[in-house]
Amino acid sequence: MSTLLTGLGLGRLLHRAAHAPATRRRWIIRIGAGATVLIALGGAAYALPVPFLDRLVADQVVDRVSAQVSCAQVTVGGDRLLAQALSGTLSEVRLTVPDATLSGVRHASFTATLHDVSQPADDQTHVGAMNAAITIGFANMPTVEGTTAPTYRRADDGGLMVDTVVPAEASENVKAKLFLKMRIAGDSAEAVPQQLEIFGRKVAAAKASSLTGGVRKQDLPELPAGVTYRSITPRADGLHVALAGVATQALNTLPTQVGDQTVTYSAADGLLGISTAIKVEPIIDVPLTIRAEPRLDGDSLTLFPRLVHILGKDRETDDFLSKIVLSQIDEKDLTRKLPALPSGVRYQAVEVDPQGVHVTVGGTTIQSFSVLKQPEGGQPTTFGAEGGFLTASTKGSTQDTKIQLYAQPKITGNTLDISPQEIEMFGTRFPAARVLSQVKSAPTTYPLQELPTNLTYQSVEVTPTGLLIKLEGRDVTLAKGALGGGAC
Question: Has residue 369 got a pLDDT over 60?
């Protein structure tokens, strides 16, 4: 191994002895003789350790290997180093580069154990076999410029867990469906979030409150006194709103004019009494009371005369005097249009007593989902119904979302792949493929530096502090600077 001999200075020593002046030649001859003895001792070094020479050889080897590998800390292993040097092959060399830039990652470390190491040329090192490892700390993992740096750690199952944030703009294709339970609260309809369906799974709304929000409230049309909303049920054709009750109009609030007559009201035996005075020849202003039965006809209330109280007596409607009285009343004045009701709701019955006219109202109206308000500042929402719940479907998001990635890192060729198998959000894990089909993700594969022939990346492990990438090789020729990466 001529380069190692040159490194030890023996070649220079012999060269100077051959060309020294005569006055110095005897001194050099003595040194040369000593060197000859030293070389002769090399034969014994194959069998016997020579500690002083081993240390000298080790120091020289460390210097020369350090020149081949940037920033390396070098340790020569094995014993009888002089014998190894004379044979031209070192049995073991251990390298450590504690802080280097490897594959674009700063502050990575590199360790290697090389066996059967020789130097066929000044700029080459041949290795019979080697094992090496690159360690990348979690704090030094690569990040995407302009984004929140993710946090890496070792998962309980030995895999890699990454805490990161998905920006709103990366979620523009995310489809979500919120399931809400509807209820009546006075004159308002409330929708209470129950579940969120996202990425093919349902999540309790409480876990995804940042997306689902709180109770949604919408005012309903005002109803007459005594009539109330009873329930609201979402169905495929819309919102089914049930209402019922009895609307009462006090007698003293009824119209005081019937035709051209001024009237007052009373009630007895289920009949409404309409009192007035009419002119009956030759009598002027005869007081009378028409007792009428209220009836419903659709949304109209009609009073049907049953008796006429005149001249101190109740008379049937076919009585002579009753006919005279009723002939002076226009039948249309006894019919009143009631307020319009929503489709599906109707006036069901009417009664009268001294407290007033009581009209029973009931039914279920169906309202289109379009009556529901769109969320303020949110994504456009499509409302529907499913399983008795109101559904609110959206696409995209207006806010950033925290997620956790779970990956089993692997190496394929010269690429480190930390693509996740599962993604957790809102306390629920989803298959990563479903999430990533809708979410634009940051890069999860990273190119590793090219390796010399016969040296390959073998595996990657997740340690408590980072990633450990293992390399192996046999019959490897290393060019100067091939190990240790770029900057250090």
Answer: yes
237 and 166, same domain (yes or no) = no
10 Å Cβ neighbour count for 460? 20
HSE-up (13 A, CA, CB side) for residue 376: 3
| 3-class DSSP state of 235 | strand
Query: For 34-56, how does the pLDDT look when each residue is reduced to its tens digit (9 = 90+)?
Result: 334 334 444 444 444 545 556 66
Neighbour tally for 137: CB within 10 Å: 16
In order, the DSSP letters of 393-423 are: EEES-SS-EEEEEEE--EEETTEEE--EEEE
Of 359, 338, 334, the closest CA to residue 265 belongs to: 334
State the pTM of this model: 0.69
pLDDT tens, 407-456? 999 999 999 999 999 999 888 899 999 999 998 888 889 899 889 999 99
Task: Kindly state whether residues 182 and 300 are assigned to the same domain.
Answer: no
CA 57/CA 51 separation, integer angstroms: 10
Domain assignment of residue 53, yes or no = yes
| Residue-number span of the structural domain to which 163 is assigned | 145-172+399-442
- CB–CB of 61/85 below 8 Å? yes
The token pair at 102 is 């490897």
Residues 117 and 126 sit within 8 Å (Cβ to Cβ):
yes
Written as six digits, the tokens of 280 are 């009956």
Q: CB under 8 Å to 462, separation ≥6 — which residues?
A: 154, 155, 158, 159, 160, 409, 468
Residues near 258 by beta carbon (within 8 Å), at least 6 away in sequence:
274, 276, 329, 333, 334
Number of domains in the chain: 4
